[in-house]
């Protein structure tokens, strides 16, 4: 894999709260990552201006708001996400088939092929079997992830967000064209933080991840540009 291909797989999690932070990170990491993720912290503090600021820097955007509500509300929120011109947007698969199918059909009808790829979050990478048990789900994590990925595919979603540990099973269940986006990525130099189901960048790409979401391992590094270069080199060197 070339360094450019490796770079394009990296989505930097902009877990910050100000527009000035976006300017700083976008300027610093442009050319070192393929996309920027706007999540709950940044969107709650800055709203759509966060997306527009990344776009003004020429950056692509994954809008990670993990919608989970009644079908009509989620479909309308997804339409507004698509209107922002983002590349990826997501909802929570635990919202079920009607919620996902309504959102997917509504966005497709309004935007055709000029739309974001729609992702369903399966089981959060910070969750374990114990987390599931606490909310009454007595099934292994991997079984739940594959079950939700199948449901997402059948509902018209383009892909899922899952841990790299589940890539192989999702590919077997959902095929080669189904997008798999994986947070829970930790290079050997980084700490786990609150992530529980993790792999290294090269392991995740070798397993078949389309995109890796990486935040703190880059943001908290002494030299974030050097950290992103090390990740690109690890992927490019370790993956065919
Ligand atoms: O299952 C999930 C879904 C989303 N995330 C998000 O990804 C980043 C990961 O950041 P790190 O600093 O690399 O841990 C973060 O914004 C999460 O909200 C996830 O981690 N797991």
Automatic annotation (TrEMBL):
Subunit details: Homodimer.
Binding residues annotated for substrate, in chain numbering: 15, 37, 64-73, 125, 186, 195, 215-216
EC numbers, comma separated: 4.1.1.23
Domain Orotidine 5'-phosphate decarboxylase: 9-231
Superkingdom classification of source: Bacteria
Entry function: Catalyzes the decarboxylation of orotidine 5'-monophosphate (OMP) to uridine 5'-monophosphate (UMP).
Pathway connected to this protein: Pyrimidine metabolism; UMP biosynthesis via de novo pathway; UMP from orotate: step 2/2
Keywords: Decarboxylase, Lyase, Pyrimidine biosynthesis
Residues forming the catalytic site: 64 (for ompdecase activity), 66 (proton donor), 66 (for ompdecase activity), 69 (for ompdecase activity)
Highest classification ranks of the organism: Bacteria, Pseudomonadati, Thermodesulfobacteriota, Desulfuromonadia, Geobacterales
Gene Ontology terms describing biological process: 'de novo' pyrimidine nucleobase biosynthetic process; 'de novo' UMP biosynthetic process
UniProt keyword Lyase, yes or no: yes
Pfam family, one: OMPdecase
Catalysed reactions, semicolon-separated: orotidine 5'-phosphate + H(+) = UMP + CO2
Record GO terms (molecular function): orotidine-5'-phosphate decarboxylase activity
Family as reported in the entry's similarity comment: Belongs to the OMP decarboxylase family. Type 1 subfamily.
UniProt name for this protein: Orotidine 5'-phosphate decarboxylase
A Gene Ontology cellular-component term: cytosol
The gene coding this protein: pyrF
């Amino acid at each position: 894999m070339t360094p450019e291909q490796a770079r394009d797989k990296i989505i930097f999690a902009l877990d910050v709260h100000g527009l000035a932070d976006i300017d700083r990170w976008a300027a610093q990491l442009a050319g070192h990552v393929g996309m920027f993720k706007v999540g709950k912290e940044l969107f709650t503090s800055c709203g759509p201006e966060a997306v527009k600021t990344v776009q003004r820097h020429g950056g692509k955007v994954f809008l990670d708001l993990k919608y989970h509500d009644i079908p009509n509300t989620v479909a309308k929120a997804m339409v507004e996400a698509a209107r922002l011109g983002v590349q990826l947007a997501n909802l929570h698969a635990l919202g079920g088939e009607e919620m996902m199918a309504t959102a997917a059909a509504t966005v497709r009808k309004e935007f055709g092929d000029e739309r974001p790829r729609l992702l369903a979050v399966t089981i959060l990478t910070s969750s374990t079997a114990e987390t599931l048990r606490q909310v009454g789900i007595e099934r292994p994590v991997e079984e739940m992830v594959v079950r939700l990925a199948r449901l997402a595919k059948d509902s018209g979603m383009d892909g899922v967000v899952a841990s790299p540990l589940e890539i192989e099973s999702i590919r077997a269940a959902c095929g080669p064209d189904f997008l798999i986006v994986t947070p829970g990525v930790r290079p050997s130099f980084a700490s786990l933080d609150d992530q529980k189901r993790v792999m290294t960048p090269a392991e995740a790409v070798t397993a078949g991840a389309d995109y890796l979401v990486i935040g703190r391992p880059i943001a908290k590094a002494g030299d974030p540009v050097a950290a992103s270069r090390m990740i690109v080199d690890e992927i490019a060197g370790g993956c065919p």
